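User: Run a structure prediction on this.
Assistant: Running it now.
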Amino acid sequence: MIGGVLILITISIIALSMTSRRHITDEPGQIAISFIPPFQEILTHLTNAVQDVWRHYFALVRTAHENDQLRRALALSVEESRKCREVELANHRLRNLLNFKDLEAFDVLAAEVIGRDPSIWFKTIVIDKGKADGVTKGLPVVNAQGIVGQVISAGNRYAKVLLLTDPASAADALIQRSRSRGVVKGNAAPDCLFDYAVSNDDIQIGDWVISSGLDGVYPKGLAIGRVSRLMRPDDDLFQEVIVSPSVDFEKIEEVLIILNPGNPGEERIP
């Protein structure tokens, strides 16, 4: 096709040069000139076709470039929207913590969870506050839903918290409605045990379990959870009480460390 175009261009140039010479008036020259217009028309159509191809090609390239820019802009918008949503959720959680802080007569320190023990045997988290912030071993850790656990070690800028659901954890507790006493222990599971509840204690499913304040760790009145299951063996002195914690331990992101746990507090449930 390109060779044909070149031939037609050559013929057109020759014809034009022939017509520009006034002394050419012979009949063969006029006959040759009569064949020029069809070739010029074909050449014009071919030239226009080539130009259309180039215009469409550059238009496609420009469109593809614009599409790439739009895709990048959309991706950035989605990312910004995700960040805004995350900030909104964080603000909601922090407002809950601040409300909890306002309702309690404790000196508290807010901390962010930055690590979690991956083992199935130990239930611990790492927070971003340590000795430099006044955090020491033994301090209780809570959030707006209730007791989270206890600080078991503290570095200068970080601390490790043993969660209430760990088998090594324990909290002296009360059934809020009937005042029956027991000890809430971790059960290596989502639930906890309410131990040492005698068989004739008035305990019902749905009862709130709160801290008694008698263990020297957790102030009185902090929410622990609700009674979710009961077993009263006929020949046993104690009944088996299962407690579902009020804290969702799989979704903890921020906590409060109580710096003066010896101060009395009011009984409070979420």
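The chain has two domains: 1-103, 108-258.
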